[in-house]
Amino acid sequence: MNFQTTALHAGYEKDTQGTMAVPIYQTTAYEFRDVEHAADLFALKELGNIYTRLNNPTTDVFEKRFAQLEGGEAALATSSGMSAIFFAIANAAEAGDNIVCAKQLYGGTLTQTAHTLKRFGIESRFFDVHNPSEIEALIDEKTKVIFFESLTNPSIDVADTEAITAIANKHNILTVVDNTVATPVICRPFEFGVDVVVHSASKYTTGQGLAIGGILVERKNLVEKLKNNPRYKHFNEPDESYHGLVYVDVPLPPFTLRARLSLLRDLGAVSSPFNSWLFIQGLEHLSLRMREHSQNALALAEFLEAHPKVLKVNYPGLTSNANYEMAQKYFTDGLCSGLLSFEVASLKEAEKIVNATKLYSLVVNIGDSKSIITHPASTTHQQLSDEELKACGVPAGLIRISVGLESAKDLIDDIAQALEA
Ligand code: PLP
Question: What's the rounded Cα separation, in Å, for the pair 35 and 12?
């Protein structure tokens, strides 16, 4: 099915009422027919609803639809992008293991990997996303995940996904990609050998800044990589917390199954039915919005590039950009999403410009239909040391813009007056 058709229809079979809109199943629990039915559901002999911390019919539509849009096999919705990332990593690694991550990551993902996971005994080792050849020296028998963003936030770099997955496959290691900024409209990581895709649904998926959520998607036939793989014993050995279930022996996608039955059950970072419903609404027009976001961003990037006060513009749609070739290779129709950043001479100069804009909202978010301006060094990346800031490509004079769906002319006029203020 075509992407846009999938975005409108996949995963939903109309109920007896024939409702065109997917209903919001706002419920905590579900009645079992009898004791045997309940026992069968718990034993996975029959699939069905048990309790909304584990599954929910509205969330199920969101998961099925998103899995198809990514070209994956199954998905698991979570309460935030951060929990989707944590689940993807914690599903593969445990205390004593390590993961290899790109340095260029969203600030929250950097603190999760570098600091929080460390407290749980999982070490993170970092490579430069422009230099996948650094990865091999970081790998050992305890490496469980290679993690990177397809289009990085806020440094706006494009990962050489095939180069990274080739190394991962050579060592039989899972790759997890955060595809939040590109979205499946622009990049489909599974086509380039990625195993698991994660998203913050809080961004372009909702599209209007309406809700926090996340999703994790598993590629087709991931079981082949997990089965008998010594790195992933916990998928191949009985899970004593689920009466001896061996995940790779169940005829269900094992990565999302384990994340649901073990992590979602025990950690509870579940998507609310209402938020899942909002994400379903967002998916209906995701592809239309991503084209418009991309066109507006390119127009603004071209204006900024020609401005004398601007030292550098980071937008992979610009032919002058170091990521241009990668974007042409990995992104659909050369679209590059709505995220751009530009650098001015100093922290002071950046603050002046941000304060002088009228149309852009000073907000720590991206992917809204309304344009957003951010100064990462004083907000999202404030917790990082100078060294960490430099390593992830965030100089003090960097301004990030999430280009919205306003008219491109109005967006350019406003930034022009702010640069002169
Ligand atoms: N991944 C990326 C690329 C992000 O930009 C963000 C948030 O900005 C996250 C993950 C975290 O998502 P959430 O805020 O939904 O937890």
Answer: 28
Can you tell me the distance from the alpha carbon of 24 to that of 277, in angstroms, rounded to the nearest whole number?
A: 6
HEC sequence for 247-298: HHHCCCCHHHHHHHHHHHHHHCCCCCHHHHHHHHHHHHCHHHHHHHHHHHHH
Average pLDDT over residues 350-377: 95
Q: Which amino acid is at 85?
A: I
On the CB side of 378, CA atoms within 13 Å amount to 14
- CB of 102 within 8 A of CB of 126? yes
The pLDDT of residue 373 is above 90: yes
pLDDT of residue 6: 97
DSSP designation for 379: T
Instruction: List domains and CATH numbers for the chain.
Output: 3-281 (3.40.640.10), 286-420 (3.90.1150.10)
pLDDT digit string, tens, across residues 303-342: 999 999 999 999 999 999 999 999 999 999 999 999 999 9
Q: Look over the chain and give the mean of its residue pLDDT values, rounded to a whole number.
A: 96
Query: From CA 252, how far away is CA 235, in angstroms rounded?
Result: 12
Contacts 24+ apart (CB under 8 A), 252-255: 252/44, 252/74, 253/73, 253/74, 253/218, 253/222, 253/223, 254/218, 254/222, 254/223, 254/226, 255/74, 255/91, 255/195, 255/196, 255/216, 255/218, 255/222, 255/226
Ligand 1-lining residues (CB < 6 angstroms): 80-82, 106, 108-109, 149, 153, 178, 180-181, 200, 202, 212, 214, 366
Burial class (CB in 10 A: 0-12, 13-18, 19+), 307: middle
Region of 302 (left: φ > 0; alpha: ψ -120 to 50; beta: rest) is alpha
Q: Helix 347-356 and helix 408-420: axis angle, to 10°?
A: 130
Q: What confidence tier does 238 reach under pLDDT thresholds 50, 70, 90?
A: very high
- Of 79, 104, 109, 177, the residue with max ligand 1 atoms within 8 A of its CB, to mutate for a pocket test, comes to 109
CA of 175 to the centre of ligand 1 (A): 18
Is-contact 53 268, C-beta < 8 A?
yes
* Interval 288-299: pLDDT, tens: 999 999 999 999
CA nearest ligand 1 atom 4, residue: 106
What does the radius of gyration of the chain's CA atoms come to, in whole angstroms? 22
